[in-house]
Amino acid sequence: MTFLAYALYFGALIGAALMLAAWMARVYAGIPALAGVERLLLRGAGVNPGRDMAWPGYALAVLAFNLVGFIVLYAILRGQGALPLNPDGIGGMAPDLAFNTAVSFVTNTNWQAYSGEAQLSYLSQMAGLTVQNFVSAGTGMAVAVAVIRGFTAAKGTTIGNFWVDLVRSVLWILLPLSILLALFLAWQGVPQTLLGAVTASGLEGTEQVIARGPAAAQIAIKQLGTNGGGFFGVNSAHPFENPTIASNLAQSLAILLIPVAFCFLFGRMAGDRREGRAIFAAMAVMFVAGLVVIHLYEAAGNPALGLGANMEGKEQRFGALLSSLWAASTTAASNGSVNAMHDSFMPLSGLVMLVFMQIGEVIFGGVGAGLYGMLLYVVLAVFLAGLMVGRTPEYLGRKVEAREVTLAVLAFLSMPLGILVGGAIAATVPQALAAVQDAGPHGFSEILYAYSSATGNNGSAFGGWGAAGTWHTTALGLIMLLGRYAIIVPMLAIAGSMIRKTRAPVTSGTFPTHGPLFVTLLILTVLILGALTFFPVLALGPIAEETARAAGQSF
Amino acid sequence: MAKHDRSANASGIYPAAIRASVTKLDPRQLWRNPVMFVTAIVATMTTLLGLRDLFTATAGAGVALHIAFWLWLCVIFADFAEALAEGRGRARADTLRATKSETRVRLLTGPDADPGTASMALSTSLRAGQLVYLTAGDTVPTDGEVLRGMASVNESAITGESAPVIREAGGDRSSVTGGTTIASDWIVMKVTAEPGKSFLDRMIALVEGAERQKTPNEIALNILLVGLTLIFLFVVVTLPAFASYSGTTIPVVVLGALFVTLIPTTIGGLLSAIGIAGMDRLVKANVIAKSGRAVEAAGDVDTLLLDKTGTITFGNRMADALIPAPGVDARRLAEAAALASLADKTPEGKSIVEKAREMLGAIPAMPHGAEPVAFTAQTRLSGLDLADGRRLRKGAIDAVIRLTGQTPPGALAAQVDAIARSGGTPLLVAEGDVILGVVHLKDIVKPGVRERFAELRAMGIRTVMITGDNPLTAAAIAAEAGVDDFLAEATPEMKLDLIRREQAGGRLVAMCGDGSNDAPALAQADVGVAMNAGTPAAKEAANLIDLDSDPTKLIEVVLVGKQLLISRGALTTFSIANDVAKYFAVLPAIFVAAYPGLASLNVMGLASPTSAILSAVIFNALILIALVPLALRGVRYRPASAAALLRRNLLIYGLGGLIVPFIGIKAIDLCLVALNLA
């Protein structure tokens, strides 16, 4: 039964992703019938859609666009009290929280140090956050497409035009899918209104204020764009965000849909679908392995709390199965929306979620970001093992040389820097320690989770953690920037360097980058270079908690 | 054809290497190897902490000093590996240097000047452009080009080949190398090398590793190793903060030990030894690389351009079959052909006699009173006039037809056509005016060549045969040798075009050549091997020089290049895979005080935290020294497809790298306990 449910889910996911990849390949190549609209928009913005950019130009466009997005969002959040569409009269956000929130949405992290219904006006939600939900996802997708071009396109100097890629990602991929999903969610009961909160009397006679608002539209894009920022504070565990099993299933699929499609898109653009399937397979194997661990631990439950599945922090509506699937998907995909409290999962389930984020969100990962993150590991795997076939390592016919290795190492350093250095400071500084709710290794996991989530641009948190303190709003804001741009810029540089190389023809002497052998190699590279770095801290957090739990101690 | 055994005399190099491994601790030298530099810093720190504890009588001094000892040993082992690799080359360099004695030479004012007017000069003072007169017994003072005269030269000092070779003015055999000796006759040579820049000098520098520059892949690998070291630095530096949150402290000595075991010391320590040993293998094959880059490029080669003559075929046409005319006994033809060729000392003639011997069982003796008839350009016939008046002749078809006044009978004519069509050369044999049959002369493909090319194909390397033959002949030989493609009636321009075409398609091309007209192609090729006997222009354009002037060496060079890259990749993979076990050894040891439950991570069941940390450090040092022979010898390499190589090496060095340290660390732990050291 359980197996069948998972099998159906994966079948639907892969089928939909394959179709979407075919559509995306056409979109990014340019569909003549849609070119008129694109040209109109781009010309209006003063962009020449015919002019492709070399990597520095592309990177500069990404950074400039995101900087402007940040400034606008920051201004809206600070000034929302004086701005329209604020029926509940919510005041402006504090500077550090506004910085944290603006960075969080611009970097596609959607870390929420605030509670939406209490601290955001409808204008902030719609014109601020929802807009960034679209364009931050679009940025990730555009960067990924540019990186794919660098690896796969014919020899040249340019990797595409950022503005064109961005417009195409948003207009023809994110927008249509979001409209479909929003309509579906509204049908399932998710509110979509500009009216203010409702006051109602409960059975016991006390007055209660029930928050609502334009939620369906934002939730659709929060899942599709791997953003994860909920309309309401408790995210997809809230009955208005995720009212039914059907809405839960649709959202679960939406979380992974575009990231999975990117694997297949890679194969299509490489002109060899096996290349895309190999990357998909490596991600899928790790995802399923993690999911199995989470599912088994949650279904077995905690004997200390009685028999049956671990239901602490879970919605009765979803149970262990749907909560496990969601937890695995949302941490793997850099989404960050939750339908259960990750804090309350079993220790080793928490370990899986931590590892998914710490390896850099490369198991499907954020839209676009997951693929270019995985390509970083591919470059390292190819370089490490490629020498073993007696040639200068090459990927897709292009040599991986000192320049690419330098850039890959640079990008790679951002994960330990954000998580270990950021986390170590948070574990020492008293202002930072105030955020920790629980004692012992569980409290340690809270710190680790927050910094892993921020560096991986995931956005979910261990529930008890107090994210709103000034220390963490600032530190995590900076680390989110590191986790996003310290990978985007080197990856674009690698793409720009790869595309200048002549592609060597494939011979029997070529290092094979498809098939089970390479998939194994890639997985081992992710685990040994990625996960192993965090083994010491994982030992002090979830592993210590699990061994203590086995000995009957809880935190 | 005896070759001297010039593998370096092994007995003397170990003491020198041991001495060098200590002198290499000089920070200025260590700095070139970042991983080992960092290891040395940690070792220094650990030593100082151990000594401090010793003098303040703090507990734990013994363990700290024990750890420090093994950390230092790790650095020394790495130095030793490098010194050993260099030492093997240095022994060779010393024998080379011995040939480079200072002598007095006769300087001429012009190429045609009378040797009697020569002035004397020191061989070491010669500058490029000066003219030197050399006669039998003289040592060639430096590299040069023969301007006048011809001499047989003994090149054994350079090549190990004892048979003298001819060097003469003009043509492709005009270059002489410093250190060789004139065996007979005389020459006037023009000096082409500035002092200290001759091939001998370059070779000495090369084998000593003095001019060793890091190759592109080595640089990239070094960057990765530095990156990994940085990552582990983050891991270790942040650990005290995390530990103190968890209510425990980790001694600095232990942090240092963890750090050194995690950083890739194995590959970091052996990287330069692998590179030097790779060059040494090339030197052993008697090839000089002008740069390490060329050796790596050789491993990357996609297309090999091979000269037909000397590489694929023996270079002389040989008798492949004797086909009798209708009604003629095969033995009669064989006997006639053999007699007609007895006096013919050309390789073709000898091969006919040899073929006849196969058919007859013995070589017919020269009949008494027989008169040999030599080949002339006019008759284009040769043979033997017997005392009994019989006249035996062999020669070109039209010449024999003219001689005998007969045309070959239909069946034989068809055979003649078939031979010509297959790219062979038909020779008719006649007795008087009777045509006895036809000799099929053909280019004989060297034995084993076909298998060699099949191996190359499996490795993904395309072979292209270059020949001056007509397309018909070329196609026949290409098919027989099993090359992938051929270039017939090749001119230097066509070669250059072919190389450019291949390169435009993203392929790396290797070729060998000797003539001046090969120079542009040699320069254009990614890997150009010049024959040492070739012209200075060719040698200048190439990036590798084969001292044996053996065109098949190109294939050896490719294999050496591949083996070098594979050795590096295999040891890197092994080194990184080792970290899994080391984590499992050290982490429970340092965290068990905070969380006793973490003892369950001690999957190896190591005796105590101290023995666990010591075992990991000791394993780290011992695996380095254990892998030195592999680094020097190179990973065993058999030609195979990339997929097969990857599977095999990933299994041995990847999986092996995961498993071996678990066993090794456990074994060391057991020893430490048995010896009561921890």
TrEMBL record, chain A:
<dbReference type="GO" id="GO:0030955">
    <property type="term" value="F:potassium ion binding"/>
</dbReference>
<feature type="transmembrane region" description="Helical">
    <location>
        <begin position="245"/>
        <end position="266"/>
    </location>
</feature>
<dbReference type="GO" id="GO:0005886">
    <property type="term" value="C:plasma membrane"/>
</dbReference>
<keyword id="KW-1003">Cell membrane</keyword>
<comment type="subunit">
    <text>The system is composed of three essential subunits: KdpA, KdpB and KdpC.</text>
</comment>
<keyword id="KW-0812">Transmembrane</keyword>
<feature type="transmembrane region" description="Helical">
    <location>
        <begin position="405"/>
        <end position="427"/>
    </location>
</feature>
<feature type="transmembrane region" description="Helical">
    <location>
        <begin position="278"/>
        <end position="297"/>
    </location>
</feature>
<keyword id="KW-0630">Potassium</keyword>
<feature type="transmembrane region" description="Helical">
    <location>
        <begin position="53"/>
        <end position="77"/>
    </location>
</feature>
<dbReference type="InterPro" id="IPR004623">
    <property type="entry name" value="KdpA"/>
</dbReference>
<feature type="transmembrane region" description="Helical">
    <location>
        <begin position="517"/>
        <end position="539"/>
    </location>
</feature>
<keyword id="KW-0406">Ion transport</keyword>
<feature type="transmembrane region" description="Helical">
    <location>
        <begin position="97"/>
        <end position="114"/>
    </location>
</feature>
<keyword id="KW-0633">Potassium transport</keyword>
<feature type="transmembrane region" description="Helical">
    <location>
        <begin position="475"/>
        <end position="496"/>
    </location>
</feature>
<comment type="similarity">
    <text>Belongs to the KdpA family.</text>
</comment>
<dbReference type="Pfam" id="PF03814">
    <property type="entry name" value="KdpA"/>
</dbReference>
<feature type="transmembrane region" description="Helical">
    <location>
        <begin position="166"/>
        <end position="187"/>
    </location>
</feature>
<dbReference type="GO" id="GO:0008556">
    <property type="term" value="F:P-type potassium transmembrane transporter activity"/>
</dbReference>
<keyword id="KW-0472">Membrane</keyword>
<keyword id="KW-1133">Transmembrane helix</keyword>
Automatic annotation (TrEMBL), chain B:
<keyword id="KW-1133">Transmembrane helix</keyword>
<feature type="transmembrane region" description="Helical">
    <location>
        <begin position="63"/>
        <end position="85"/>
    </location>
</feature>
<feature type="binding site">
    <location>
        <position position="514"/>
    </location>
    <ligand>
        <name>Mg(2+)</name>
    </ligand>
</feature>
<dbReference type="InterPro" id="IPR059000">
    <property type="entry name" value="ATPase_P-type_domA"/>
</dbReference>
<keyword id="KW-1003">Cell membrane</keyword>
<keyword id="KW-0460">Magnesium</keyword>
<dbReference type="Pfam" id="PF00702">
    <property type="entry name" value="Hydrolase"/>
</dbReference>
<dbReference type="InterPro" id="IPR008250">
    <property type="entry name" value="ATPase_P-typ_transduc_dom_A_sf"/>
</dbReference>
<keyword id="KW-0472">Membrane</keyword>
<dbReference type="InterPro" id="IPR018303">
    <property type="entry name" value="ATPase_P-typ_P_site"/>
</dbReference>
<protein>
    <recommendedName>
        <fullName>Potassium-transporting ATPase ATP-binding subunit</fullName>
        <ecNumber>7.2.2.6</ecNumber>
    </recommendedName>
</protein>
<feature type="binding site">
    <location>
        <position position="348"/>
    </location>
    <ligand>
        <name>ATP</name>
    </ligand>
</feature>
<feature type="binding site">
    <location>
        <position position="344"/>
    </location>
    <ligand>
        <name>ATP</name>
    </ligand>
</feature>
<feature type="transmembrane region" description="Helical">
    <location>
        <begin position="34"/>
        <end position="51"/>
    </location>
</feature>
<dbReference type="InterPro" id="IPR036412">
    <property type="entry name" value="HAD-like_sf"/>
</dbReference>
<feature type="transmembrane region" description="Helical">
    <location>
        <begin position="219"/>
        <end position="243"/>
    </location>
</feature>
<feature type="binding site">
    <location>
        <position position="394"/>
    </location>
    <ligand>
        <name>ATP</name>
    </ligand>
</feature>
<dbReference type="InterPro" id="IPR001757">
    <property type="entry name" value="P_typ_ATPase"/>
</dbReference>
<keyword id="KW-1278">Translocase</keyword>
<feature type="transmembrane region" description="Helical">
    <location>
        <begin position="249"/>
        <end position="274"/>
    </location>
</feature>
<keyword id="KW-0812">Transmembrane</keyword>
<feature type="transmembrane region" description="Helical">
    <location>
        <begin position="652"/>
        <end position="675"/>
    </location>
</feature>
